[in-house]
Q: What sequence folds into this?
């Protein structure tokens, strides 16, 4: 079996230097392979590549584009059984979502693997996450993009790239939105989540020509909080992504009404993330619906943001993308 491993940096590709600071290190990624072989043997041929090496908080559009190109080259070679991408945890969800949309129709498994601590720290879950990804590929448990990650004290869980949600603040735990994880290892064996529901977008983005604008000034992203003031909508804005409180609500204020009126006059759609359409709605939901705000269902707000980013970068009407 041949697996292509693409190193991109992150904690899993870092060491603690002589100053006691975590920084990327050229030797660290290969330590991951050594740790795997020591436990699991030499039965896997790992082909390694490294298109860039950064701490993931420094992720930019150019890095994602380079990674997409690298993955596409591997796919076109048709000489491997799966791909593992090592990645930092800070922006793991963003890269997973972007790759998830671009490689939705891929015929092989692509797994992102991170580590909560540097690999020579006994608390690090990186080796288990990597081993889980290898097993996923060996058993061909699915195709497309996934994240292999074990929360402390738990088995390795596999998440769809488009379903990863925010990490809890100051925490190294990872979750899928609405607990929609794809599967997990139970006593070393893969078990698919019976409650998992697949959502497909029809492969609207092609790795051959997809691009990402260096910034997302055309997307206005808003989070609600008590006492908030709404910004003016700048020229060039093509969509507003409004996050909600956990119950799918936002503050209904005169400021919101004025904001929605401005968006309507400029013909800019306002999408809202976080409403569970299967639960009883609060009266405030009806109020913002009446103002023209369109709730989005399904994926995480990170994935919805990435979908809009891909749309505006590739000249696709955001309204048409969201309909899918």
A:
């Amino acid at each position: 079996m041949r697996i292509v491993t693409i190193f991109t940096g992150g904690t899993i590709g870092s060491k603690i230097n002589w100053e006691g600071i975590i920084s990327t290190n050229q030797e660290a990624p290969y330590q991951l392979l050594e740790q795997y072989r020591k436990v699991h043997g030499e039965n896997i041929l790992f082909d390694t590549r490294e298109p860039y090496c950064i701490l993931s908080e420094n992720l930019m559009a150019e890095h994602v584009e380079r990674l997409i190109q690298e993955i596409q080259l591997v796919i076109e070679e048709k000489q491997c059984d799966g791909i593992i991408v090592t990645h930092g945890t800070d922006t793991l969800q963003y890269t997973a979502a972007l790759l998830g949309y671009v490689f939705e129709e891929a015929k092989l498994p692509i797994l992102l693997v991170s580590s909560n601590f540097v690999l020579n720290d006994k608390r690090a879950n990186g080796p288990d996450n990597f081993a889980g990804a290898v097993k996923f590929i060996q058993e061909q448990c699915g195709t497309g993009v996934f994240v292999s990650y074990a929360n402390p004290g738990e088995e390795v869980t596999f998440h769809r790239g488009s379903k990863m949600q925010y990490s809890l603040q100051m925490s190294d735990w990872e979750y899928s939105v609405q607990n929609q994880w794809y599967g997990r290892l139970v006593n070393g064996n893969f078990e698919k989540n019976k409650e998992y529901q697949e959502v497909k977008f029809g492969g609207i983005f092609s790795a051959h020509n997809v691009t990402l604008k260096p910034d997302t000034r055309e997307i206005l992203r808003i989070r609600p909080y008590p006492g908030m003031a709404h910004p003016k909508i700048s020229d060039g804005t093509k969509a507003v992504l409004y996050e909600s409180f956990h119950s799918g609500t936002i503050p209904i204020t005169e400021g919101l009404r004025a904001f929605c009126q401005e968006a309507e006059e400029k013909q800019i759609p306002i999408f809202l993330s976080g409403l569970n359409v299967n639960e009883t709605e609060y009266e405030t939901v009806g109020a913002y619906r009446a103002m023209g705000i369109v709730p989005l269902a399904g994926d995480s707000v990170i994935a919805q943001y990435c979908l809009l980013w891909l749309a505006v970068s590739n000249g696709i009407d955001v309204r048409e993308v969201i309909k899918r």
Remarks:
- The first strand starts at residue 2 and ends at 7.
- The chain has a mean pLDDT of 94.
- Residues 61-77 form the longest helix (17 residues).
